[in-house]
Amino acid sequence: MNVDRYAVIGNPVAHSKSPLIHTAFAKATAQSLSYERLLAPRDGFAAAVADFAAQGGKGLNVTIPFKLDAFALVREKSERAESAGACNTLAWRGDHWFGDNTDGAGLLRDLTVNLSENIAGRSVLVLGAGGAARGILQPLLGQRPHRVVVANRTHARAVELATRFTPYGAVASIEPRALAGSRFDIVINATSIGLNSQVPRDLWPDGMFASAALAYDLVYANQKTPFMVWAAEQGAAKTADGLGMLIEQAAESFLLWRGVRPETAPVFALLRGG
Ligand code: NDP
Q1: Which residues contact 72 (CB under 8 A, 6 or more apart)?
Q2: For position 195, what pLDDT does the model report?
Q3: Is the whole model's pTM more than 0.90, yes or no?
Q4: Are residues 235 and 114 in the same domain?
Q5: Residue-level pLDDT at 12
Q6: I need a labelling partner for 36 at 20 to 30 A (CA). Which of 7, 154, 171, 195 fits?
Q7: CA 176–ligand 1 middle distance (angstroms)
Q8: Is 180 helix (H, G, I), strand (E, B) or coil?
Q9: How far apart are the C-alpha atoms of 181 and 249, rounded to whole Å?
Q10: 236 Cβ contact partners less than 8 Å away, ≥ 6 residues apart
Q11: What DSSP assignment string belongs to 198-234?
Q12: What is the reported pLDDT for 107?
């Protein structure tokens, strides 16, 4: 039987939860499709994508380190991919790839729907200025926060990002150490310090969390991440990891490919349980 083929492409990719998520979405929405993992050589992204299309592949999720390569490869792209300068989703359009970026929409939905967080009028700090930060700034600014401040270890990258996103709203860059004395309602860790590294306490000052602040880590795990532990010690009232964002960005990709937006709560429960 011929079913539509989808995959997540990355390097490494073995850890990806995307096959589990999309298989669950397909089942819940009665869509007939297959979803696999594609490990591409670091210098072989374009060839692997072309090969997948030649085999009838309909869509790809793109993960580390290929989001910029995906942006460079596509002929047509969404406005949110354009503003991020990166693609995490590709859809085959008969004779070319369409590129989208669903990371920001995924974060926004997790913050505003799943976590019932209000962004309008609030102060938001984004730690990090890599690919993930680029994908989330426009959707955050679209919510009309009081301000978004970007702080990154390599300050020049934060400056570049803030400049790029100034047309979308109140965004500024700041040296991490100059954050001392500032307080934020929502602090988002978009760095790759991940699960095995320590929070850079020499770089990030104490006392950045306003009362009732949410600390949100883009990384996810079965236990609290180092950033979540640190944020709670620092007085953050609420902490969350990025599993909800992962599932919500996948639902956006699924919508683009299949024209139906799956329920995400059952998949969240499935992954949290397992
Ligand atoms: P990048 O490699 O593009 O960027 C990494 C960022 O982390 C840079 O700003 C870098 O600073 C900073 N950084 C790295 N190490 C340190 C450190 N020791 N101290 C302070 N800053 C540091 O990664 P991405 O932006 O693509 O991804 C960031 C994280 O977000 C990853 O963990 C990824 O898994 C996660 N993510 C989660 C998603 C989800 O759906 N939940 C979606 C997308 C990403 P510098 O510029 O100085 O090098």
Answers
A1: none
A2: 81
A3: yes
A4: yes
A5: 94
A6: 195
A7: 15
A8: coil
A9: 34
A10: 187, 209, 213, 214, 215
A11: PP-TTTSPS--EEEEEEEEESS--SS--HHHHHHHHT
A12: 98
Distances (CA, A) of 210 to 19, 82, 182: 38, 33, 9
What's the domain range around 89? 4-101+246-272
Residue/partner pairs of 109-114 with CB below 8 Å, 24 or more apart: 109/248, 109/251, 109/252, 110/240, 110/242, 110/244, 110/245, 110/247, 110/248, 111/186, 111/214, 111/216, 112/143, 114/244, 114/248, 114/264, 114/268
Residue 153 and residue 39 share a domain: no
What DSSP character marks residue 15?
Answer: T
Please state whether beta strands 4-10 and 147-151 pair in parallel, antiparallel, or not at all (unpaired).
Answer: unpaired
Query: Strand 238-240 relative to strand 184-189: parallel, antiparallel, unpaired?
Result: unpaired
Q: How many domains does the chain have?
A: 2
Q: List residues with catalytic annotation.
A: 67
Residues of the chain with pLDDT under 70: 1, 274
How remote is the CA of residue 191 from the centroid of ligand 1, in Å? 3
Residue owning tokens 């803030």: 162
In total, the chain counts a number of residues equal to 274
Cα 246 from Cα 106, distance rounded (Å): 7
Instruction: Give, for ligand 1, the residue of 13, 69, 103, 192 to mutate: max count of ligand atoms closer than 8 Å to Cβ.
Output: 192
> How far apart (Å, rounded) are the C-alpha atoms in residues 99 and 91?
7
The CATH number covering residue 194 comes to 3.40.50.720
Among candidate residues 129, 103, 144, 130, the one with its CA nearest the CA of residue 248? 103
CB atoms within 10 A of CB 154: 10
